[in-house]
Amino acid sequence: MDxxxxxxxxxxxxxxxxxxxxxxxxxxVCEKSGVLNLGQEGMMLFGAVIxxxxxxxxxxxxxxxxxACLAGVLLSLLFAFxxxxxxxxxxxTGLALxxxxxxxxxxIGAAWVGKPLAGFEPVAIPLLSEIPLLGRMxxxxxxxxxxxxxxxxxxxxxxxxxxxxxxxxxxGENPNAASAMGLPVLRVRTLAVMFGGAMAGxxxxxxxxxxxxxxxxNMTAGRGWIALALVVFASWRVxxxxxxxxxxxxxxxxxxxxxxxGLAIPGNLLAMLPYVATIVVLVVLSRDAIKTRxxxxxxxxxxxxxxx
Length: 308
Prior knowledge:
Layout lengths: L2 H30 L7 H19 L2 H25 L4 H19 L25 H6 L3 H19 L1 H11 L1 H6 L4 H27 L11 H11 L4 H15 L1 H8 L5 H5 L1 H14 L2 H7 L13
GO cellular component, one term: plasma membrane
Main location: membrane
InterPro entries: ABC_transp_permease
């Protein structure tokens, strides 16, 4: 395997892993606050279709990105109202949100399927992009990939170094104690859910404006579900999220790698690998449920009301 092929593999790995990274970072913050939102797939698709329509109609890719984020926030507020405001079951509410988002995106985007769009192009950083192997992977990407790097750094700093991160984790570990200390539990959780929605919408916008600049029904292909598993796989640790996202991205392009090196393996079989890897990861983690619970936020998925 020559160096050019490896460079292309690493480059594609980061591009393919970017939507997973964005969604997983949003879900990580959400779960750190004690909220389990399974509606990531629906928010991604809604963000993808709204971002595409706005960008196609206005001619502004960045306006499309902004509207994709706002679309994700809009659906996340629907989840927050039902799951947090009405204290409904978070799993059932998240599943309903995904079903709603998938159907709504298909309905809204029916007239936009297959329309061409000039999406974000790679922007190589001089000198740095010429570093062997890692140059194109890290410094030859489009602007939304660079944005994902910045958002990763921001989330890592907030969770690990800031007072806001301590508040989020306090609310996620023991909302009763946090409330007794004067922390606005529902407000913190709502803001965390909104951030998760914005990240899911951004990931959807990346799919329709950069990765494959077009709109197609169900174009996220289960990435929202993979991102949910990725947060568990990363044991709710922010630095493991980026590595996991890129590993899942690599698994997603193995069928292209096999074709590139001439392996006689059916492409459809290799295309199944990301989903098989997700199942394997969850099975392995479930074998050590005690260790998994040690890392998970204590109040994850549990409804909470003030005064209870």
